[in-house]
Amino acid sequence: MQLIDNLRGSHSRTLRNVVWALLACLLLAPALAMRFTREVDWDAIDFVFAAILLGTIGIACECAPRLSAPPVVRALLVIGTLAAVCVIWADAAVGIFD
Fold first, then answer.
1. What is the C-alpha to C-alpha distance for residues 59 and 87, in angstroms, rounded to an integer?
2. CA–CA distance, 72 with 32 (Å, rounded to integer)
3. Of the candidates 8, 2, 24, 26, the residue with the CA atom closest to the CA atom of residue 65
């Protein structure tokens, strides 16, 4: 039984690392794009705003597995957070709700 728990912990740790690495890559993508094109023009505030939004996704992915709720509720928490972040990001980018 302890072996199964250890395997779950290892898998969980790997998944957490992959999620945080993907979020970091998403944050670094505009910085890299700014080197090659003038179409992407972010300043420090844009990066801070993006870091907060992406961090929110990361925190939701960290906290959801720790809930004692059924897996469906945990999945809905992460999906809801992703949807909220996408709506906020789209509104900040093009002003959907103005």
1. 18
2. 37
3. 8
Q: Which residues contact 54 (CB under 8 A, 6 or more apart)?
A: 23, 26, 27, 85
- Model pTM? 0.76
What single-letter DSSP state applies at residue 68? -
Separation between Cα atoms, residue 5 and residue 91, nearest integer Å:
42
pLDDT in tens, 53-75: 999 999 988 888 787 788 888 88
Give helix 71-94 / helix 44-63 axis angle, nearest 10°.
Answer: 170
1-40 CB burial, b ≥16 within 10 A, e <16: eeeeeeeeeeeeeeeeeebbeebeeeeeeeeeeeeeeeee
Inter-CA distances, 44 with 8, 31, 37, Å: 39, 10, 17
